[in-house]
UniProtKB/TrEMBL annotation:
Designated gene of the protein: argD
Named cofactor requirement(s): pyridoxal 5'-phosphate
Binding site for N(2)-acetyl-L-ornithine: R141, T280
Record: residues binding pyridoxal 5'-phosphate: G105, A106, F138, D223, E224, V225, Q226, T281
Full protein name: Acetylornithine aminotransferase
Record's miscellaneous remark: May also have succinyldiaminopimelate aminotransferase activity, thus carrying out the corresponding step in lysine biosynthesis.
Top EC category: transferase
Organism encoding this protein: Paludibacterium purpuratum
GO MF: diaminobutyrate-2-oxoglutarate transaminase activity; identical protein binding; N2-acetyl-L-ornithine:2-oxoglutarate 5-aminotransferase activity; pyridoxal phosphate binding
Record's keyword terms, sorted: Amino-acid biosynthesis, Aminotransferase, Arginine biosynthesis, Cytoplasm, Pyridoxal phosphate, Transferase
InterPro entries hit by this protein: Ac/SucOrn_transaminase_bac, AcOrn/SuccOrn_fam, Aminotrans_3, Aminotrans_3_PPA_site, Class-III_PLP-dep_AT, PyrdxlP-dep_Trfase, PyrdxlP-dep_Trfase_major, PyrdxlP-dep_Trfase_small
The keyword Amino-acid biosynthesis belongs to this UniProt entry's keyword annotation: yes
Length: 401
């Protein structure tokens, strides 16, 4: 018999690194979720941009069940067919020649940053080791990635931190020009800052980063953990720009809910990782790769990518109408189905209040900092679920406006 658990159980037995909502989801289908009491929620959160195809997509269920009947884990002492098929598909669809699989976005960024330093050491010497990132960025929770991320609140309690890391204000070209020099081994950027407030990069900023990296022999890393696999309306966000990175990291939507991360790069750069340079026990396991391959096949369908832009338009129109009605939103920004509503007036800094009010109305939302309400729903969210979710948000805002 299963042990009965409630939200209070979390406070009794879990390490308190999170403050989860007051209900426990137990079942999901598409963009709807039900809790222990059978209460229904519209999911505009998408598992923080993870559930790209919603909950319990039948094709993902089939892929997982099929692989679960064959092989779960074999380790990287051996290779496996799903990993090879996924790597082949990713390199077919992107600029990359090579893929490295891991379990999360943080691990993918850790691998990218280590590879950048190793590549620079191999080709230029040990003194070329500085990493340039952006203020307010987020690249993961390992000690290396939390140091590269430009949010002191996430690293200030864990000193001493890794060194030779500098930060420029996001979209500040002059600041970037001052920081990138002969000692820079890599520049790492998010095409859209997710945790930093859903801020899109200026195309000129990305282009200048590419030019500076080329001039100084540095690698350009795009962190597409949150923007990748259809989230912004193209398979990867770099495809909407004139800039191609040297290394790209992917996770979240890649597995559609099953944990997996990937680092993608070209042959010449990948050559700096030789056997023993880096590794992972679970990375590239057959279950994760089988599911991710099916996600990639579905998201890359033209009709799916076109549908993201249609859903973007519907959501932005509805959010804009609510913003006008209540005067709570200073700006609605983002790309595709990664959207942020910046609060203003008396509700400035009160994103969590909006989340609680939405929860009471049966709507799941996110925040990106204290002042931005974030939405990252399924790329396949039904039109009626968009309308119902907006209706529930309308009722929530009415309570707090």
């Amino acid at each position: 018999m299963n042990q009965a658990v409630t939200r209070a159980t979390f406070d009794q037995v879990m390490v308190q690194t999170y403050q989860p909502a007051g209900f426990i989801p137990v079942r999901g289908a598409g963009s709807r979720v039900w809790d222990q009491d059978g209460r229904e929620f519209i999911d505009f959160a998408g598992g923080i941009a993870v559930n790209a195809l919603g909950h319990c997509h039948p094709e993902l269920q089939a892929a997982l069940a099929e692989q679960a009947g064959k092989l779960w884990h074999i380790s990287n002492v051996f290779t496996n067919e799903p990993a090879l098929r996924l790597a082949s598909k990713l390199t077919e669809l992107t600029f990359a020649d090579r893929a490295f699989f891991c379990n999360s976005g943080a691990e993918a960024n850790e691998a990218a940053l280590k590879l950048a330093r190793k590549y620079a050491r191999d080709h230029f010497g040990a003194e070329k080791n500085r990493i340039v990132a952006c203020d307010n960025s987020f690249h993961g929770r390992t000690l290396f990635t939390v140091s590269v991320g430009g949010q002191p609140k996430y690293n200030q309690d864990f000193a001493p931190l890794p060194e030779a890391i500098a930060h420029a204000p996001y979209n500040d070209i002059e600041a970037l020009e001052r920081l990138v020099d002969a000692h820079t081994c890599a520049v790492i950027l998010e095409p859209v800052q997710g945790e930093g407030g859903v801020l899109a990069a200026d195309p000129a900023f990305l282009l200048r980063a590419r030019e500076l990296c080329d001039r100084h022999g540095a690698l350009l890393i795009f962190d597409e953990v949150q923007t990748g696999v259809g989230r912004t309306g193209s398979l990867y966000a770099y495809m909407q720009t004139d800039v191609v990175p040297d290394i790209l990291t992917s996770a979240k939507s890649l597995g559609g809910g099953f944990p997996i991360g990937a680092m993608l790069t070209r042959d010449a750069i990948a050559a700096s990782f030789t056997p023993g340079s880096h590794g992972t026990t679970y990375g590239g396991n057959p279950l994760a790769c089988a599911v991710a391959l099916r996600v990639l096949e579905i998201v890359s369908r033209p009709e799916v990518l076109a549908g993201i832009q249609d859903r973007h338009g519907r959501l932005v129109a509805g959010l804009s109408a609510l913003g006008d009605k209540y005067g709570l939103f200073k700006e609605i920004r983002g790309k595709g189905l990664l959207l942020g509503c910046e609060l203003q007036g008396k509700q400035a800094g009160a994103a969590r209040v909006v989340l609680h009010a939405a929860e009471a109305e049966g709507l799941m939302l996110l925040q990106a900092g204290p002042n931005v309400v974030r939405l990252a729903p399924s790329l396949l969210i039904e039109h009626q679920d968009i309308e119902e979710g907006l209706s529930r948000l309308d009722r929530a805002l009415a309570h707090i406006a």
